[in-house]
Amino acid sequence: MRARVTRVVLDVLKPRELDTTELGRALCELEGVEKVEVSVVEVDVRTETLKLTVEGGSVDLGAVQRLLEEHGCAVRSVDALSFEKARPGAG
Amino acid sequence: MGDPLGLRGWRLALRHLGSTGFGSIARRYFAANLFDGVLTALGLVLGYYFAGGASAGTLIATALAAGLGLGISGFVSSLLVEMAERHRELAELERVMMRGLHGTVLGYARKLAVFLSALANSVGAVVGTLTVVAPMLAADAVGFGASAASAVAVGFAELLALGVYLARTSGASALKYAAAMLGAGLALVAATLLMGG
Questions:
Q1: Cβ contact (<8 Å) for B105 and A18?
Q2: A18: contact with B, CB 8 A cutoff
Q3: What are the chain A neighbours of B25 within 8 Å (beta carbons)?
Q4: What ipTM does this complex have?
């Protein structure tokens, strides 16, 4: 049985025009995501560097990256990943 | 390119509309073209009245055409100006982000902001024109002169309200802005009278 991704930490470059709250909300609406934490690491004239922490029972890293790219962000690196072994009978 | 996210892109873009600065641009456009519409309609009413016209239907039809002309002109001009400006800004942002942004939610939000700003510009002109000539609809009941006077009064009331609104949004003196707006209206009256009123 494959282990599930339960936590992802990403280094993301975001255009300042993009609403951070709405971006967080959109991430939270992804299947398997239960919690999103956004920390603004650096603010530039047109961009912001964010540390994004996405947590959930089964986080689809590809879907998270896709959503960020679709919004106009650039995922610079995946800084941390947490896995959990799927227990038999657990969703 | 094109429309890669489809309807979902527009739906997501709506959420980010506020952060594109659309609100303040649309407000500015609406106010500027409302002013244009009111002054144009005031000029029409005064010019027509002083030229001896007495047909409310002709005046309303003329004002409607003028309002639509202003509206279309406002829509197209601001659409082109905003598109050019936003295209330049997006290209700059793409350089900083080191990636293309067309077809992203941000791209959709910017397109939506351009379209809605142009619409606000257009609506401002039409609303400004039509509200001034609206009292002419009562010409049959109250007489052409009285309804023309009401139209002028509505025009001046709108100019006053616009002055107060602009002062409020900028935090400046309401008296100064209202005086400037009314001054423009009075200048129009004076010019119309000088031209043969």
A1: yes
A2: yes
A3: none
A4: 0.89
